[in-house]
Amino acid sequence: MLRTLLAFFGLAGLLALSTNPALAIGLMSAGVLLNCASYTFIAQAWNLAPGSRYSISYNFVLTSTIGAPPVSSGNTITFTTVSTTSTQTLIQGFAPPLTADYAGLGSATLVNLTTSTTPDTAPITISPSPVSCAPLT
């Protein structure tokens, strides 16, 4: 009887170790590297399905620390994965360039377009914050 119980619990333990719970797709991080003339948006996602199409949409608003008009930007990146992790980068320029000190807030959203999976949203880290840009003379 003891041998049967040990065999059962041993097999149950092996099965429990071999199962891998399904993990949702997600954004590990999203950020904007900012300078006075342009920005670079970077997002890293995990647990992506190889061969699936995804989109990452982002929006952020830069607010002047000295009362200049706010600046907002956003875009959507669409891509097909080849592995379970992926980093996407998009560079966009400002028009006109920043001419004051700005700090910002924003968010990014990842969606699996192949399966229409529930999106995952993450805040955007803006660096440096604030960015100091001299006014045009």
Fold and architecture overview:
This protein has 137 residues and is mainly β. Helices cover 12% and strands 50% of the residues. The protein has one helix spanning 2-18; strands at 26-34, 38-46, 53-64, 71-80, 86-93, 101-112, 120-123, 125-127, 131-132. The strands form 2 sheets. Strands 3, 4, 6, 7 and 9 form a 5-stranded antiparallel beta sheet that branches. The protein has a 4-stranded mixed beta sheet with strand order 5-2-1-8, with no helix packed on it. A hairpin with a 3-residue loop joins strand 1 (26-34) and strand 2 (38-46). The longest helix has 17 residues, at 2-18.
Which descriptors apply to this entry?
137 residues, 5-stranded antiparallel β-sheet, 4-stranded mixed β-sheet, 50% strand, elongated, disordered N terminus
Summarize the structure.
The protein has 1 helix and 9 strands, in the order αβββββββββ. The chain has 137 residues and is mainly beta.
SSE diagram, text form:
Layout: H1 2-18, E1 26-34, E2 38-46, E3 53-64, E4 71-80, E5 86-93, E6 101-112, E7 120-123, E8 125-127, E9 131-132
Parallel strand pairs: 1-8
Antiparallel strand pairs: 1-2, 2-5, 3-4, 3-6, 6-7, 6-9
Beta percentage is: over 45%
Arithmetic mean pLDDT: 77
User: Spans of 5+ residues with little confidence (pLDDT < 50)?
Assistant: 1-22
User: What percentage of residues falls in helices of 4 or more residues?
Assistant: 10-25%
Q: Separation of termini?
A: 90 Å
Largest sheet: 5 strands, antiparallel
Number of helices: 1
Order of helices and strands: HEEEEEEEEE
Rg, Å, rounded: 22 Å
Instruction: Work out the number of β strands.
Output: 9
Give the overall form.
elongated
Structural class: mainly beta
